[in-house]
Design goal:
alpha/beta, four-stranded antiparallel sheet, 23% strand
């Protein structure tokens, strides 16, 4: 992995909610709050967090389907947030997405063949013979046979539909794929097949990937690095093996502690986390996690923590990161 392909700096995204009453101000919810991320060429970054933390919103911003309220997304040295719609359309062939729902992401009125051919038709000047050969090649690359190509999405299984989505995503030979919960809607028996297929294609094509998931075991399997989100902020990031073995932020420790596993000899049980997830409409001041954190003090309420390095390449947004990381030596997932 060499060089930074994708750089996210200070990205925030606010959404208006509710209705104005008698001319009153409209409320907003901050789905993202000052997100910073880097993705290196050839790297897989796992993005994890609970439902509603802003993962899918960030994924849509990364590929240009949504624009941030503030901040920049720089891809291969070019600021995507400064591009017009037409300019973004021309660049989008380099950044593709795999969606969570394999059925909803496909047009039910067209065949598999036409679904895979659509990006090629939109972005290339292939003739019909070249197009047919390329579609056959892409289908074979994702494990679909010729007999699948003239079927409609409702005639396929969820795993087969996700293979179609993957074939469509790699059709234009992109540099980056953003996968938003790509296996969460599939049977457990099929998930491993799709994950291994994605890793194989990534290695063969030299792709970078942002893999969005709430499943820690999946993220640990596919990711080189991991970023943990909580209420629109990145609270910890670092090499996957290091973060999973030595989590520094109390929220990361909570996530890992929630995974069922026998405790290693001599290890204490994970710290208890208090309370419920706060409302995104009115998040806590300072550190968003402080109302549930057993380590929180007055500074946590008054000051937003910055990502600080507990180790080389490993950073956590916690004022008391030293205490958080030293309590029991880490929780093993």
């Amino acid at each position: 992995m060499t060089g930074t392909l994708l750089q996210v700096r200070g990205v925030s995204r606010d959404f208006p909610v509710g209705q104005r009453l008698l001319g009153g101000a409209r409320h907003t919810v901050s789905a993202l709050d000052g997100v910073d991320l880097d993705v290196a060429s050839g790297e897989t970054l796992g993005l994890v967090g609970e439902s509603g933390c802003g993962k899918s919103t960030l994924a849509r911003i990364l590929i240009g389907l949504d624009r941030p309220t503030a901040g920049t997304v720089t891809f291969d040295g070019e600021d995507f947030t400064a591009l017009s719609a037409n300019e973004m359309h021309a660049r989008r062939r380099r950044v593709q997405m795999i969606f969570q729902d394999p059925y909803a992401s496909l047009n039910p009125r067209i065949t598999v063949r036409d679904s895979i051919a659509e990006p090629l038709t939109n972005y290339t000047k292939m003739n019909q013979t070249e197009l047919g050969l390329k579609v056959d090649e892409l289908a074979a690359n994702v494990g679909l046979g010729a007999h699948h190509l003239d079927r409609f999405p409702h005639e396929l299984s969820g795993g087969q539909c996700q293979r179609v989505g993957l074939a469509r995503a790699i059709a234009l030979e992109p540099d980056l794929i953003v996968a938003d919960e790509p296996v969460s809607a599939l049977d457990v028996s099929i998930q491993a097949q799709i994950l291994n297929l994605m890793l194989d294609i990534k290695a063969r094509m030299g792709l970078s990937m942002v893999f969005v998931s709430h499943d820690l075991s999946v993220v640990s399997h596919v990711s080189d690095r991991v970023a943990v989100m909580y209420l629109g902020r990145i609270v910890e990031t670092g090499p996957s093996a290091d973060v999973f073995a030595r989590p520094s932020h109390p929220y990361t420790r909570m996530l890992l502690g929630s995974v069922p596993h026998p405790l290693p000899p001599g290890k204490a049980s994970p710290q208890e986390v208090r309370g419920e997830l706060p409302s995104p409409l009115s998040p806590p001041s300072g550190c968003h996690f402080r109302t549930r954190c057993p380590l929180a003090d007055e500074r946590c309420a008054a000051e937003v923590p910055k990502l600080a390095p507990p180790g080389e390449g490993h950073r956590a947004a916690c004022h008391r990161v030293a205490e958080a990381g030293a309590l029991d030596g880490g929780v093993h997932a």
